[in-house]
From TrEMBL:
Family affiliation: Belongs to the MoaB/Mog family.
Keyword Lyase belongs to the record: no
Name this polypeptide is given: Molybdenum cofactor biosynthesis protein B
CDD domains: MogA_MoaB (cd00886)
Pathway(s) it belongs to: Cofactor biosynthesis; molybdopterin biosynthesis
GO biological-process terms attached to the record: Mo-molybdopterin cofactor biosynthetic process
Highest classification ranks of the organism: Bacteria, Pseudomonadati, Pseudomonadota, Gammaproteobacteria, Oceanospirillales
Length: 172
């Protein structure tokens, strides 16, 4: 299904135990974005280290492309889960409802274990950034129940696409 506005996207996996050939969550997000007609410009896998994650996301957000960055992995509570710490300081605006809605939907699947997810999203330099858990089920849930509609410029009454395009002087 092709949406009316194609976005430039990046997918980043934060993992100490996967490589691109075993990164099913990152591959799912890549394929789901492309199936909507969006262009995945970058796909990276980095160690679950907040400094590496932040540096890469800052490079992408400082550029005119991509408009959307989806990060999978590093949103739990273990000692190596550093995605939230890497991303929160660089956000201009956190979209609190994203994490709240994700956990509400996730509760239907995994019950109270959802409280261990720190999924979140926000805007940095008018780039939408979402931090998702590393599990394939969580990525599918977030994409199919939240991101698919919000990355569709025809979704009413509002969506992230129109928000990004309206406020993006970098791409003029």
């Amino acid at each position: 299904m092709v949406m009316s506005e194609a976005l430039h996207c990046a997918v980043l996996t934060a993992s100490d135990s996967r490589d691109l050939s075993t990164d099913t969550s990152g591959q799912y997000l890549h394929d789901a974005l492309e199936s909507m007609g969006h262009r995945v410009m970058f796909r990276e896998l980095l160690p679950d280290d907040p400094y590496h994650i932040r540096a890469q996301v800052c490079r992408w957000a400082a550029d005119a492309d991509p408009q959307v960055i989806l990060i999978t992995g590093g949103t739990g509570f273990s000692g190596r889960d550093g995605t939230v710490e890497a991303i929160r300081p660089i956000l201009d605006t956190e979209i609190e409802g994203f994490g709240e809605l994700f956990r509400q939907l996730s509760y239907q699947d995994i019950g109270s274990s959802t409280v261990q997810s720190r999924a979140m999203a926000g805007l940095s330099n008018n780039t939408f950034i979402a931090c998702l858990p590393g599990s394939g089920g969580a990525c599918r849930l977030a994409f199919e129940r939240i991101l698919r509609e919000q990355l569709d410029s025809t979704h009413k009454p509002c969506n992230f696409v129109n928000l990004l395009l309206r406020g993006d002087a970098r791409r003029s």
